Amino acid sequence: MIHDLNGNLLAPLPADFGLKDTVLVAGEQIVRIIMKFEPYSGDYVWHCHRLEHEDHDMMRLLKIIPSNLNRHKSN
């Protein structure tokens, strides 16, 4: 779900409801999204659909860690 556009919270449009795997971002825009991966974990790829952007760090790996994993173990 799209959370905000350029820092302004957005009320969802009817077309924004439901599962999405693509978000249209115009030039100079910043879009924040909210995603739920549970119960899935592992590696996902996020990327821009403009192929020339791949060389400019617009294709990255996103590692999802299970929420029940204790990452702060005491010694």
From TrEMBL:
Domain Plastocyanin-like: 18-63
TM helices/strands, residue ranges: none
Pfam families reported in the protein's UniProt record: Cu-oxidase_2
Taxonomic path: Bacteria, Bacillati, Bacillota, Bacilli, Bacillales
Protein name: Plastocyanin-like domain-containing protein
Entry superkingdom: Bacteria
Family: Belongs to the multicopper oxidase family.
A Gene Ontology molecular function term of the record: copper ion binding
